Structure formats: C-alpha cells, structure tokens
C-alpha cells in the first residue's frame, strides 16, 4: 500500500466537531495526561485560538495534519521557553503514520534556522521509545508541564 501524501494545514481549516471527535477518543486520552476533561465545541475553539496565538507570537506552531487531504491529527512545534517542543497527536486510525509525519516535520525543522534542536515530551506511560532513539534523540531528563511529569528527549537539527 503506498504511503499517503502528508501535508500540513492550519487548525483553523478543520471543523471544530472533527477536533472534538478526535480528542474524545479514549485511545487518545490514554497517553495524554493533560487531557483531563471532555472536549466540546467551546473547548475545541479555545484550543484552536491558543494554537493560533502561538503562530502569532512565534511565527510557528501546531498544524492540522492531513494524509491524502484527510485530517489525521495535529502536531508541530511549539516554543516552550527557549526550546522548540515537537508534539504529535494522531487519530486512532492514523497511529501508523507517526514515523512518516515526524520525518516530514523534522525536514521542516532542519531547514528552519530558528530551530537548532527540538525536544519531545512523552508521558511516562509511553514505554516504546525505540523510534526516538532511531531518530537520534537522546534522553534529557524529565520536565514538568501542567503539573504532570514527562520524559524529555532532545534531537539536534543542525
């Protein structure tokens, strides 16, 4: 089966009910410790507004991710202090696309002089970390975000 064409769009291009359905899937919540309440249209709207504010502030942020033109999740780079953190939240049906999407995002990061390295914050529930190691990411301790502890990894992009 051929790999789908991966493209990035703005979250404002995605209907809010699509985001609500995505973030209401229990398979997603299992690895998102900051997802503590059910999503509704107001939550999705506030989420999109917050991500758009990052674009306005930093000139970069999270994208809507499309495979062959269909929404499969969101992710991208968000500035956390002086670091660019990469996040990726795929729909349950798109879990197998993570490697291809990450590769495309890393190509973007390597071409952007603002991003000398990226960080990944993963919940301790994530036990399969081989993909990060294969990318060349190395453990960089732990980080606390939103009152939750995450495993932190770093990947040089230069």
Give your account of this protein's structure.
Helices cover 32% and strands 33% of the residues. It is α+β, with helices and mostly antiparallel strands. It has a domain of 109 residues: 3-Layer(aba) Sandwich (Aminopeptidase), CATH 3.40.630.30. It has a seven-stranded mixed β-sheet, with helices on both faces. A hairpin with a 2-residue loop joins strand 6 and strand 7. Helix 1 crosses helix 3. The longest helix has 18 residues. The termini are far apart. The relative contact order is 0.16. The model has no long low-confidence stretch (mean pLDDT 91).
* Morphology call: globular
- Give the distance, in angstroms, between the N- and C-terminal Cα atoms: 33 Å
**Structural class computed from helices and strand pairing:** alpha+beta
The CATH architecture category of the domain at 6-114 equals 3-Layer(aba) Sandwich
Give the overall average pLDDT: 91
According to DSSP, the number of beta strands is 7
Give me the strand/helix succession: EHHHEEEHEHEE
- Level of helix content? 25-40%
Write the topology of this structure.
Layout (H helix, E strand, L loop, with lengths): L5 E4 L6 H8 L2 H4 L11 H18 L3 E6 L2 E11 L2 E8 L7 H14 L5 E6 L7 H6 L2 E8 L2 E9 L2
Parallel strand pairs: 4-5
Antiparallel strand pairs: 1-2, 2-3, 3-4, 5-7, 6-7
Helix pairs in contact: 1-3
């Amino acid at each position: 089966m051929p790999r789908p064409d991966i493209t990035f769009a703005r979250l404002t291009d995605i209907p809010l009910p699509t985001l609500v359905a995505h973030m209401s899937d229990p398979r997603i919540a299992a690895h998102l410790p900051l997802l503590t309440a059910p999503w509704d249209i107001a939550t999705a709207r506030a989420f999109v507004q917050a991500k758009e504010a990052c674009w306005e502030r930093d000139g970069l942020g999270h994208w809507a991710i499309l495979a062959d033109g269909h929404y499969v999740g969101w992710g991208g780079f968000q500035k956390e202090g002086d670091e660019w953190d990469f996040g990726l939240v795929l729909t349950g049906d798109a879990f197998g696309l993570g490697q291809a999407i990450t590769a495309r995002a890393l190509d973007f990061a390597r071409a952007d002089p603002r991003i000398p390295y990226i960080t990944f914050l993963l919940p301790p529930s994530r036990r399969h970390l081989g993909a990060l190691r294969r990318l060349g990411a190395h453990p960089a301790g732990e980080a606390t975000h939103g009152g939750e502890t995450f495993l932190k990894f770093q990947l040089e992009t230069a």
